């Protein structure tokens, strides 16, 4: 009897855990739906601020850890970064829709500057799956036109032009190109060691930090008026006469 009672209690607890998971899911879906249009409105405002996203990316030390040095000069070509969840567009989601509520898109707009890179809007699709009991992000590769100046390290061009016969320099450039932010657009999360490294970490940084806290990073990067005022204050020692007498103390 005690064993049956214990099992019944465990079953009831398991049922409550399922209810809690559903409640947490529904709360997250509600948050996404309520905030998505707010971020859309924010995007319209940010588009009016020159170099907004360049400043945000430059302000974030973690972002620099995931890209190559060669990428830094091209960050100012980014006009917009936007994260959109599929579930936000579904008025009455089904249970199947709710299973995929964490799927999302990241759209990045690039603007041409002296012909360095073509104007382009690149949208990359991401899915959240469970693998070995852990959440994992995977993605579909998407085409992007690289800056012309990086043609020498563009992995796709190297493979296309050289075929399977790669010289030592070709392989070096290929590996260098695979570390570039532009290779992240081809990342899938299903080819460890054979594609852009740390693709999931960079994706999470963009979605969970850079996009959500973009305004905060921008404001932090602005000149501090108080510091400017302090730097302009007169030194209290200015105007004092200096004792240049030879008298010993």
From TrEMBL:
Pfam families recorded: NAP (PF00956)
Source organism superkingdom: Eukaryota
One GO CC annotation: cytosol
GO molecular function annotations of the record: acetyltransferase activator activity; histone binding; identical protein binding
Acidic residues bias (residue ranges): 224-249
Region (Disordered): 223-249
Signal peptide start and end residues: none
Similarity comment text for this entry: Belongs to the nucleosome assembly protein (NAP) family.
Protein name (database record): Vacuolar protein sorting-associated protein 75
GO biological process: DNA replication-dependent chromatin assembly; double-strand break repair via nonhomologous end joining; nucleosome assembly
Organism in which the protein naturally occurs: Suhomyces tanzawaensis NRRL Y-17324
